[in-house]
Amino acid sequence: MLIIVTRSGGFAGGELTAALDTDCRADGAELERLAESALTSEGPAGREPVPDGFGYVVRVDGKLVELRDPHLTEAQRKLIDAVLAEAV
Q1: Structural domain includes residue 32
Q2: Range of 10's domain?
Q3: Which of 19, 54, 64, 76 lies 20 to 30 Å (CA to CA) from residue 42?
C-alpha cells in the first residue's frame, strides 16, 4: 500500500510531502490498519481551521482525505506522524 501525506500551513506556511510503501516494512500491517481508519474516520467535532494550524492531505492507493489540526483522531495522528517521519 502506498501512503502519501502532504502537510501545509503552520506558522511558516510551508509544505512538506512524504510517502511510504507498506509492502516491505515490519510495521506495514499496522500502518495499513491506520490508513484504513484514517480514510473512514471523522475527526473530533469542531473541524474549523485554527490559526497557524496544519492541514493534511492523505492519499492511500488513490483515495484521498483532507484533515486539519487539531481535529485528528488518534489513528490519523499516528499515520501522519509515521509517514512524515520518512521525510526527515
Answers
A1: yes
A2: 1-39+72-88
A3: 19
| Any domain includes 55 | no
Range of lowest pLDDT (9-18, 28-37, 42-51): 42-51
Q: Output the nine-digit C-alpha cell for 22.
A: 507498506
Which distant-in-sequence residues (6+ apart) come within 8 Å of 74 by Cβ?
A: none
Q: What is each CA distance from 59 to 13, 32, 50, 80, in whole angstroms?
A: 21, 12, 23, 11
CB atoms within 10 A of CB 51: 6
Residue 40 has pLDDT above 80, yes or no: yes
Question: Which strand ranges, in their side-by-side order, compose the sheet holding 2-9?
Answer: 14-21, 2-9, 54-60, 63-68
The set of cell numbers assigned to 40 is 473512514
Q: How many degrees, rounded to 5, is the angle at CA 56 between CA 53 and CA 58?
A: 165
Residue 64 inside a domain? The answer is no
